[in-house]
Amino acid sequence: MTNGNKRGYIYRMKGGRELKYSEQIEGFLDFLRESKMDYNIAVSTEKDANDKTQDLLHSLELYENTYHEYARAAKKLAKVRQERREAKDKREQLQSVMDWLEENDRVIHGLERLLGNVRKAEKAAEGRFYMQRTDVLAEIGKEDMS
């Protein structure tokens, strides 16, 4: 969900509050990290399903099975192929993100540095206070209001 402010900037909302700039940058970097993990899991799951498919097909080809064993193998094969399809779809959907990550390694490092700098500026703004430089406020109370 997004919400615009008076200046036209768009802030992402989370739990009814505006996200800090650092949280928005961090969210994008988290997305990239999670995408990479999801991609690797999908590749591994697809390979595992391919191996299971080969085991089942070779079992059907090489061994004498009863009618019920064939039926159970066919049901298992259908389930394994469905798992493979889901993993393959996810891998294909994330492939463009992985390609972009590989091509933009320097950009990612730049975003990580940017996140650190923005966090530092946000922290400095949180603890900010003002120290009076003159006695002008004390003088106001001493002046005659005539």
Instruction: Record the strand order, biggest sheet.
Output: 1-2-3
Mean pLDDT comes to 89
In total, how many beta strands? 3
Please provide the ordered H/E string of secondary-structure elements: EEEHHHH
Q: Termini distance?
A: 56 Å
| Uncertain spans | none
Helix content: over 70%
Largest sheet: number of strands, sense, barrel closure: 3 strands, antiparallel
Number of helices: 4
* Multimeric organization: single chain
Class derived from helix and strand content = mainly alpha
List keywords for this structure.
146 residues; mainly alpha; three-stranded antiparallel beta sheet; 4 helices; 74% helix; rod-shaped
Structure in words:
By secondary structure, the protein is mainly alpha-helical. It has a domain at 21-106. 74% of the residues lie in helices and 7% in strands. The protein contains four helices and three strands; from the N terminus they run βββαααα. The chain has helices spanning 21-62, 67-103, 105-126, 136-142; strands at 2-4, 10-14, 17-18. Strands 1-2-3 form a three-stranded antiparallel sheet, with no helix packed on it. A hairpin with a 5-residue loop joins strand 1 (2-4) and strand 2 (10-14). The longest helix has 42 residues, at 21-62. It is rod-shaped, with a radius of gyration of 30 Å. The mean pLDDT is 89.
Quick gist of this model?
The chain is mainly α.
